Amino acid sequence: MKPWPFQQIRRVTLSRWLARGTREFTGRISTDSRDLQPGDLFIAISGPNFDGHHFISAVMDSGAAGILVSRTPEDAVIASATSASVTILQCDNTVRGLNRLAAAYRRELRAKVIAVGGSNGKTTTKQMIHTLLSQRFSGVASPKSFNNNIGLPITLLSVQPQHEYVVLEVGTNAPGEVEALGQVAAPDIVVITGVGLEHLEFLTDIVHVAHEEASLARFVAPDGILLLTNESPELLHALRLTRGPRFTVGQGGSGADMEATEIHEALADTDFVVNGRVAYHLPLLGRHNVFNAMLAIGVARRMGLTDEEIQTGLGAVKPVSMRLEPLRIAGHLIINDAYNANPTSMAAAIKMFATLALPDAVEQRPRRVALLGDMLELGTQSEELHRQIGRLAAESPIDLLIFVGPLMLHAAHEARRMGMEVHHFADVEAAGAKLPKLLAPSDVILLKASRGTRLEKLLDIIRAAENAPAATV
Question: Alpha-carbon torsion 314, 320, 323, 324, what sign?
């Protein structure tokens, strides 16, 4: 961020002085004591695994200019800070203080703020937008999945005065989280990729998911715009009272402002035509990524990019790690989509995998092997939703189903009942012990699961069995 005096930081974070130092704040914010640089402001976050308040002495030794805390340090620590000219501020809650600081800083930004929400495809869409805009403009995007009440404000605070845009990812696990992040971001452009069955443990059903995701649109700037797919009636209903201009994308004949036709999916890329006029090449798998790409195209056009610039930019998009990422390990083609899963994204991945054009094999047709792990945070609907996935997988042209995790036992029962060859394992370790014997050298494999399943560990098992490094296709 632009360096602010600690007096201003104290005011916007609603803090009080514990120590007033003279070290100059350089504008860099950190919540990780291992990543500090001289002149940083360290914000002590109390998390489930670490508490930044435990590292204050080390923070002072690192050369940090200031520290924001919620708990009062010992007198000796305050005395040390005073003698070392380190500023210590105390607020009621450091996460709230961080968000207050980001919201205040956002009001001074000249950069266009683009917020990407939705149940699926946020990270990929964010990356597409960043790739397109970076051809002409200077800007930043949320690293990895910085989409919560720590990651989003940290990203906003990384914006420098020379930047012309920032792309934020907005996530949720429970009601009200999107609204809180929308208030901080105050976006100029809102993108909602769609809604699906996510975090039902707290969001209950698709209607509540739609209302949660739609709440982001309430915070778009008066001269801003909302971009969304027209695929979800629940989302459209939730947005019915939202005012302001909107731009929709969809399939040909759907009545959307931007429609995709002539969609052709290949092994590692997809081609499509927009409104019968402009052809685009996207080096990503999955029909759903066409709609993510059109949302990115809509943002790029709003920012003034030409069709030629957009075509070039989309052609340079790279797969995001563990999101439909094609890998080759020895004789296997592996589609690694193990970063996360909910029933909507799981169904989309299965349908994509079932229709994927496979490479020619020398001796026999490659088998399609789906390696599917638990979908988490689905509440009371978890069993039935896993059963539905089992039925969908069994109805698809997939040769072998391998299910991992206690919840996927329900999917395994359904698929087995429908006559499929099925293997089920309680966890990744159990699956890894048997997996090498279940696979043939030319198998094409899909990995898909919620993040907590850690299904990507099976890549190391396959790699070790084949004694070959992985390479991106």
Answer: positive
- Residue 377, domain extent: 325-472
> What pLDDT digit, counting tens, does each position of 47-65 carry?
888 899 999 989 998 999 9
Tokens 């997809």 belong to residue? 270
d(CA 285, CA 283): 7
Q: Quote the mean pLDDT of the chain.
A: 93
On the 0-12 / 13-18 / 19+ scale of CB atoms within 10 A, 464 is exposed
Q: What is the mean pLDDT of residues 294-298?
A: 98
Q: 168 with 142: CB under 8 angstroms? A: yes
Nearest Cα neighbor of 402 from 427, 429, 370 is 370
In this structure, the strands spanning 444-448 and 270-274 are unpaired
Pick from 21, 16, 14: nearest CA to 39: 21
Spatial CA neighbour of 53 closest among 73, 80, 36, 37: 73
pTM over 0.70, yes/no: yes
Please check whether residues 306 and 331 belong to one and the same domain. Answer: no
The CATH number that applies at residue 421 is 3.90.190.20
- Strand 332-337 and strand 325-329: the pairing is antiparallel
Report the number of distinct structural domains present in the chain: 3
Tell whether the model's pLDDT for residue 468 goes beyond 50. no
118 with 71, same domain: the answer is no
For the CA atoms of the chain, what is the radius of gyration?
24
Q: Which helix (H) or strand (E) holds 250?
A: strand 246-251
pLDDT in tens, 453-467: 999 999 999 888 765
What DSSP letter does each residue of 185-223 carry, written as one string?
H--SEEEE----S--HHHH-SHHHHHHHHHGGGGGS-TT
